[in-house]
Amino acid sequence: MPKILISRHVGDHAMSILSSSGFDLIVNSEDAAPSREWVLKHLADPEMAAMCLMHGQPSDIVDEELLNACGPNVKCLSTFSVGFDHINVKAANERGIKIGHTPGVLDDAVADVTVMLVLMTMRRVENGISLVKAGEWAQIPWAPFVNCGPSISHPSLTISFIGFGRISQATLSRLLAFTSTSHPPRILYTSSRARPDQVSIDQAFSEKFGVEIKRVEREQVAKQGDIVIVLASQNPQTVDFVNKEFLTWMKKTAILVNCARGPLVNSEDLAWALENDEIYGAGLDVVTGEPNVSADHPLVKSRKCVVLPHIGSGDYDTRNKMAELCVRNAINGAKGEALLAEVKV
Amino acid sequence: MPKILISRHVGDHAMSILSSSGFDLIVNSEDAAPSREWVLKHLADPEMAAMCLMHGQPSDIVDEELLNACGPNVKCLSTFSVGFDHINVKAANERGIKIGHTPGVLDDAVADVTVMLVLMTMRRVENGISLVKAGEWAQIPWAPFVNCGPSISHPSLTISFIGFGRISQATLSRLLAFTSTSHPPRILYTSSRARPDQVSIDQAFSEKFGVEIKRVEREQVAKQGDIVIVLASQNPQTVDFVNKEFLTWMKKTAILVNCARGPLVNSEDLAWALENDEIYGAGLDVVTGEPNVSADHPLVKSRKCVVLPHIGSGDYDTRNKMAELCVRNAINGAKGEALLAEVKV
To answer: What counts of helices (H) and strands (E) characterise chain A?
Structure first.
C-alpha cells in the first residue's frame, strides 16, 4: 500500500481529505517539527510515494541529503507554502520528483497584512504602542502634530512595488480604497527584466486599476516611491535587493514594507537607514534569520520599525486552503498525476 | 483691536491664515498646554473675540468657570477636534458664544486607522509584536495554524457599526476592498433612534455601497457582528454603550474596535471580556481617562488588545486641514459671521 508522509498535522479539513485518499498516512504526532531522522527514515520506505512538508521547519529542508534519502517511489514533495527557497527544485526534478506549492490561495491574506503594515508604518504605530506600553502617554498628550505621520491620501503619492505579481496587485486594489481619488497615486514597479511588450503590459495594468502603472528599474522605484513594498520571490537576484544603496536612494519621508522573504531586505542596512533618518519607517512581516530573532535585534528595538512574526497568510480560512492545496498536490503526485500547483525551475 | 486667543501653536499653515486675518493674536508660546490661569486671564480681555482650543488639554475645558471668565466680546470658541465632550455647548450658546469644531476633514484619516485596527485585531498583531519583542519567536515558529486569526474575507461576514455617520461610511468603503466579493458582508448599524423613513434610508445606503445595510437595535449589532466598530459621538446615551451586557451578547469569535471616544466602551468590562474569552480581541485608539493610562492598565497589558495613543486623525495633511478649519471658524466667529462648522445642541 503506497504511503504519504505528513511532517505536521495540517488541520482537520485537510487531514480528512488525506484520510479518504486511499493512501496509508504516516503523520508526525507532535505539534512541533519532527526530527530530521524521523523524516529521512520514512522517506526511505520503499512504499513512500509523497510528502507534505513545511517551510521553516528544519527537518523538512529539501537538499541533496533529503533527496538521497528518498526511496524509489517518492514522486512528490509538497510544501505548505508558496515560497520554495528551502527546496532544491532542480535536484528534485532531476530525480523525477515533483515539487508542489500553494500559490494563489494566500494572495488576499498577504495583501491584507501588507496594507495593514503600510498603514501602521505611515502612522508610526510601533512608536505609539511602545509609548502606551511604557506608560508615557500622559507625558506626550494630544497636540496638533504629535505622533503624526504622512498621509496615505496625500495628493499624487507614488507607490513602488518590488515585484508585481498577484499579491502586489491584490495589495494595490486595497490601497486604492485609501488613496486620493481626485489626485490618484502613480504606481511604479520593478521586475526581473523588461518584456518586449512592456508598454502594452503596463497599459493593460493601468486600465485594469484605473491609475498610471509603469515598470521602471531598481533605482527609480527607490527614488520615487513614497511607499515602497517588497513582494517578490527570493532568489539569488533578489537577495539584498534593498540594501544601503537602495535605502540611500529612498526619500527621507518614504516608508518600506516587506511581506515577501526576509533576505530581500538587508537587515543591517535597514537598521542603519532608520537610525540615520534615511527613511521614515519600516514594516516587516519577515526578517532574515527568522524565527531566530532576539529581543535585542536592532530592528525589533527600533521605534521606527514594526516586526511581525510572519503572519502574512495567517488567517484560518487561508491556512485551510493552503493545507488543502498542499495535500491535494501530494495525493496527485503520489498517484503520478499532474499537481494542482507545481514548482518548475 | 479685537484679538484671537490661540491656546497652542496650530502649525505654520494655519498660523499664516491667522496672521493675515487682521486680528491681534495671543499665542501660547509653549509646545504644551498653557495654564488654566493664562487662558482665563486672556479670555477676560475686553478685546478678546474668539479662541482656538484643543480637545484633551485641561486648560481648555469649556465649563461654567471658563464661560464666566469670558469678556463681553468673546463670540466664538473653536475646538481643534470633531468631538465636543469637553465643551458645555448649551451654556455657551445661552451666552451668545458659538462653538466651532472640525468635522468632515478627518473622516478619511480616522477611517484609515479604524480599518488598520480591524486588521490588527483580527490578525492578533498585539500578540505577534509582543512575542517578537520578548524574543519568543523562535519558541513559536511557523506552523499551520500558529498566530492565526479570523479571516476578513470569510464568506458572509457581518460587520456592525455603532453609529453610521461619515466616518463609519468611509470605513465601510475601505473594508469592502478586503471582504469577499462572491459572498459579500452584511452590514448592521445602530443609531440613537429609528427614523420614520428608516426603510428607505437603509435602501439608499444599500444601493450606495452595493451590500445589504440595515439599522437594528443595540442587542442585534452585538449578537450578530463578527466585526463591531464603535464610531459614535460621546453623549450621556452613548457612555458605556459597550458594557458587560453588550460584550456577553457578542460572539466569542468577534472583535471590537473603538475609534470614537474612550467612555463609549467600559474599560473594566472589556478587560473582563477579554480575560474570559467572551470576545476574540479588541483594538482601541481611545480609552477612558486618556492620556493618563499607565503601563499596568489591564487593557494595555492584555495580548488580546491593542491600545493606540489616539492617533486617528494623526496624519499631517489631516491635522493641517483641521487646523485651518479651526482657525477659520475662530476668525469668522470673531467677525460675527457664520462659522464654517458650528456645533449646536
So the answer is: 13, 13
A294 interaction partners in chain B (CB closer than 8 Å): 135
Alpha helices, DSSP H, located in B125-266 = 125-133, 166-175, 198-209, 218-224, 244-249
User: Cα–chain-centroid distance for residue A128?
Assistant: 26
Q: Do A55 and B142 touch (CB under 8 A)?
A: yes
Q: What is the DSSP string of A99-143?
A: EE---STTHHHHHHHHHHHHHHHHTTHHHHHHHHHTT-GGGS---
Query: Which residue in this structure is represented by grid cell 482601541?
Result: B284
Using a CB-CB distance cutoff of 8 angstroms, which residues of chain A are in contact with residue B293? 132, 135, 137-138
Question: Cβ contact (<8 Å) for B309 and A137?
Answer: yes
Inform me whether the C-beta atom of residue A157 falls under 8 Å from chain B C-beta atoms.
no
DSSP state of A290: T
DSSP state of B254: -
Residues 94-113, chain B: which have Cβ within 8 Å of A?
A: 108-109, 112-113
DSSP state letters, B221-233: HHHH-SEEEE---
Assigned C-alpha cell, B25: 493674536
A293 CA to chain B: closest CA distance, Å? 6
* Cβ atoms of residues B186 and B158 within 8 Å: yes
User: Among this protein's residues, is A310 annotated catalytic?
Assistant: yes
Q: Which residues on chain B are in Cβ contact (under 8 Å) with A86?
A: none
For residue A322, the chain B residues in CB contact (below 8 A) are 144
In order of start, what are the domains of chain B with their CATH numbers? Answer: 3-104+317-343 (3.40.50.720), 107-307 (3.40.50.720)
Question: How far is the C-alpha of B4 from the C-alpha of A342, rounded, in Å?
Answer: 70
- Site from A148, A306, A324, A325 to mutate, B interface, most B CB atoms within 10 angstroms: A148
Residue A146 contacts B, CB cutoff 8 Å: yes
> Could you give the ipTM of this predicted complex?
0.92
Residue with cell 520514512: A42
A262 shares contact with chain B (CB less than 8 Å): no
Give pLDDT tens digits along chain A (345 positions): 899 999 999 999 999 999 999 999 999 999 899 999 999 999 999 999 999 999 989 999 999 999 999 999 999 999 999 989 999 999 999 999 999 999 999 999 999 999 999 999 999 999 999 999 999 999 987 789 999 999 999 998 999 999 999 999 999 999 999 999 999 999 999 999 999 999 999 999 999 999 999 999 999 999 999 999 999 999 999 999 999 999 999 999 999 999 999 999 999 999 999 999 999 999 999 999 999 999 999 999 999 999 999 999 999 999 999 999 999 999 999 999 999 999 988
Q: Do B317 and A293 touch (CB under 8 A)?
A: no
